[in-house]
Amino acid sequence: MRKFIISVTGEQFEVEVEEVSIERMYSSSKVNTLRNVERRQNVTETLNRHKTGTTTVDAPMPGNILKIFVNPGDEVSKGQKLFLLEAMKMENEIGAPASGRVASIHVNVGDAVASGETIIILE
After folding, report:
1. Model's pTM, two decimal places?
2. Alpha-carbon distance 108 to 86, whole Å?
3. Which residues pair with 11 in a beta bridge?
4. Is the torsion defined by CA of 39, 76, 51, 56 positive or negative?
5. What is the sign, positive or negative, of the torsion defined by CA atoms of 108, 115, 45, 94?
C-alpha cells in the first residue's frame, strides 16, 4: 500500500492505494469478460414479459439470421429451436425461453440484426 495526500476543493485527505500487478489486472479483466458473457447468455434466456402476456425473443448479439425454424401460429416448447444466428463466424441456435405460440416474426433469413433486437414474439 502506498499513501497519498490529495486535495479536493481545498480540503486535504490521506488515502491508501494498493499497487496491482499487470498479471492481476489481466486476471481481473478476464474474470469480468467471463461475467459479461454469462450476463449476455442470461439475457438470452430471460423472459421479457409484456403486460399483454407476450414474450419477446431478442438477438443475444449482433449477427445475421441464417435460418428460421418456426412460422407464425406454430406452437413451441421451452428450449425448442426458433432461429439460427451467425455471429463472429459461429452459428448459434436460439431456443424458446418459454412455451407458447409464435405470434409474429420480425426478421427474414439473411437480415443483419443488432444485439437486443426483437426477432420473434411468443404468446
Report:
1. 0.60
2. 13
3. 8
4. positive
5. positive
Q: Are 60 and 39 in contact (CB under 8 A)?
A: no
Burial 65-97 (b: 16+ CB within 10 A, else e): beebebeeeeebeeeeebbbbeeeeeebebbbb
When computed from its CA atoms, the radius of gyration of the chain, rounded to whole angstroms, is 22
Longest dimension (CA), the chain: 68
Residue 5 has pLDDT above 60, yes or no: yes
Using one digit for the tens of pLDDT, what is the confidence trace for 60-83? Answer: 999 999 999 999 999 999 999 999
More confident site: 90 or 41: 90
Instruction: Please answer whether residues 102 and 80 qualify as being in contact, where contact means their C-beta atoms are separated by less than 8 angstroms.
Output: no
Place of cell 441464417: 66
Question: What type of residue is 46?
Answer: T
